[in-house]
Design brief:
- Keywords: Nucleotidyltransferase, Transferase.
- There is one protein chain.
- It is built from 13 helices and 26 strands.
- About 25% of the residues lie in helices and about 25% in strands.
- The protein has helices at about 5-25, 30-50, 75, 85-90, 120-135, 150-160, 210-215, 220-225, 245-250, 300-305, 320-330, 380-390, 425-430; strands spanning about 60-65, 70, 90-100, 115, 120, 145, 170-175, 175-180, 180, 200-205, 230-235, 260-270, 280, 285-290, 310-320, 335-340, 350-355, 365-370, 395, 400, 415, 440-445, 450, 455-465, 470, 475-485.
- The protein is globular.
- The mean pLDDT is about 90.
- The protein has about 500 residues and is an alpha/beta fold.
- The strands form eight sheets. The chain has an eight-stranded mixed β-sheet with strand order 2-18-12-15-11-3-6-7, sandwiched between helices. Strands 21-22-24-26 form a four-stranded parallel β-sheet, with helices on one face. Strands 1-13-14 form a three-stranded antiparallel β-sheet, with no helix packed on it.
Length: about 500
């Protein structure tokens, strides 16, 4: 860095520290105490953001990981399970990332409270899965929810209903970081409040924040004191992320000096997953490479299914003592994701974020496990919701599994148009969910509704042009059909 750049950097940093101190004076003492811890983390991130220029990886140094570092799931499963797997279960806690809102699906409040199947929400299914595990093995696996300031209050209200379930539930809060003005690099917040003019001034800084906020909350030490050794972390909207006993057993059966401290579940890439992060070998360590870190000239190469064959499902198994060690040494150097946003008033801001999987490079004996696609079943859109609500899946003790009646293991490719984006609108367009057991591909665009007991097979494309409407009649069976034009069915 030139002397001028160094001075400028120092100036930005001093100004930021002054602004943060000023913000802390706008709230009460207890609140300021919590926010000060958050701001300590933010200052470190901001400091690194000012240091780093350009892509964080040197493309020439990237290579595919050696085979032994990414084990096929079948090899791990082939080892079987010991009789006393309950002993291992008692050393596990399940952490669900619960910081997201349902806004992208047109819902208010936490995404985890959207109904996905038979009136069960994401949270209901999670609690049922873990309760089933605890009852079956007479174990004590707790559920830990990482909330954000956006979801904490609503989630805590709902947790009352699980009081009599056989699951201990803990929550902790992700940090709250200030959005910064792209030009001045200063916080846009006027005070520590989160409403009114400050409603858009704060953000939860990505799931990489789990390590610091988990430790700050005191929950990390509490779980270690209770004899827990590993956490299984996943996104709450991934319905395939259930506790896998074979992976757990693999972790627990390693010799003490070769203990694997981090497992990332990866799965084979399809054309739909080209943006997902992938595992690479970089300077003799396993590393997660995200699309945001890739130099522009290499983005197409990154998206290719031939060079990078796998992607990160964000199902992670992480050693608790290792998190504690790395946090205390302050040696978890997570790549910064700079996320630019334009607020409603047109103001350009940036959010500094990190990803939980990026920490893989800091842990000892880390590895990937190439798991079946069924462990990656995220519900991000109404198209995903249609799949999980349909007869393609059966629900048992909170777990969704592909129906035995489906003859091939892949899920159909479903693309629903903008009329289906919001969950309420989506539900209003289906009298009930069609039979999709033999469906390969469904595209629906425009103003389309489905009557009762419709059956879709093969490739079905339904397109209602602007101003037209298509009502698929009750009991219709569409196999390899394209439907277009205008069809109204009205009550007489």
């Amino acid at each position: 860095m030139t002397e001028f750049e160094e001075k400028l950097r120092q100036q930005h940093e001093d100004s930021m520290h002054r602004e943060l101190e000023a913000l802390l004076t706008t709230t009460n003492k207890a609140e300021a105490e919590i926010s000060r811890k958050d701001f300590d983390g933010f200052k470190k991130l901001f400091h690194r953001f000012l240091q780093v220029k350009g892509p964080s990886v040197d493309w020439a140094k990237i290579s595919r990981p050696p085979e032994e570092l990414i084990q096929p799931y079948d090899r791990i499963k082939a080892r079987g399970l010991p009789d006393n797997i309950a002993v291992s279960l008692n050393k596990l806690a399940v952490v669900k990332l619960n910081g997201g809102l349902g806004t992208s699906m047109g819902c208010k409040g936490p995404k985890s409270l959207i109904s996905v199947r038979n009136e069960n929400t994401f949270l209901d299914l999670t609690v049922k899965q873990i309760e089933h595990l605890n009852k079956t093995f007479n174990a004590d696996v707790p559920l830990v929810l990482m909330n954000s300031f956006n979801t904490d209050e609503d989630t805590k209200k709902i947790l009352q209903k699980y009081k009599h379930h056989q699951v201990k539930i803990h929550t902790f809060n992700q940090s709250r970081y200030p959005r910064i003005n792209k030009e001045s690099l200063l916080p846009i917040a006027k005070s520590m409040g989160t409403s009114g003019e400050n409603a858009e001034a704060w953000y939860p800084p990505g799931h990489g924040d789990i390590y610091a906020s988990f430790q700050n909350s005191g929950l990390l030490d509490k779980l270690i004191a209770e004899g827990k050794e590993y956490i299984f972390v996943s996104n709450i909207d991934n319905l395939g992320a259930t506790v896998d006993l074979f992976i757990l057993n693999h972790l627990m059966s390693q010799p003490a000096d070769k203990r694997c401290e981090f497992i990332m579940e990866v799965t084979d890439k399809t054309r739909a997953d080209v943006k997902g992060g992938t595992l690479i070998q970089y300077e003799d360590r396993l590393r997660l490479l995200e699309i945001a870190q890739v130099p522009k000239a290499h983005v197409d190469e990154f998206k290719s299914v031939t060079k990078f064959k796998i992607f990160n499902t964000n199902n992670l198994w992480i050693s608790l003592p290792a998190i504690k060690r790395l946090q205390e040494k302050n040696s978890m150097d997570l790549e910064i994701i700079v996320n630019p946003k334009t607020l409603d008033g047109g103001l350009n801001v940036i959010q500094l974020e990190t990803a939980v999987g990026a920490a893989i490079k800091s842990f000892n004996n880390a590895m990937g496990v190439n798991v079946p696609r069924s462990r990656f079943l995220p519900v991000k859109t109404s198209s995903d919701l249609l799949l999980v609500m349909s007869n393609l899946y059966t629900l048992d003790a909170g777990s969704l599994t592909m129906s035995k009646k489906r003859e091939f293991p892949t899920t159909p490719h479903v693309k629903l148009g903008s009329s289906f984006t919001k969950v309420q609108e989506f539900l209003a367009r289906f009298e009930n969910i069609p039979d999709m057991l033999e469906l390969d591909h469904l595209t629906v665009s425009g103003d389309v509704t489905f009557g009762k007991n419709v059956s879709l097979k093969g490739t079905v494309i339904i397109i209602a042009n602007h101003g037209d409407r298509i009502d698929i009649p009750a009991g219709a069976m569409l196999e390899n059909k394209i439907v277009s034009g205008n069809l109204r069915i009205l009550d007489h």
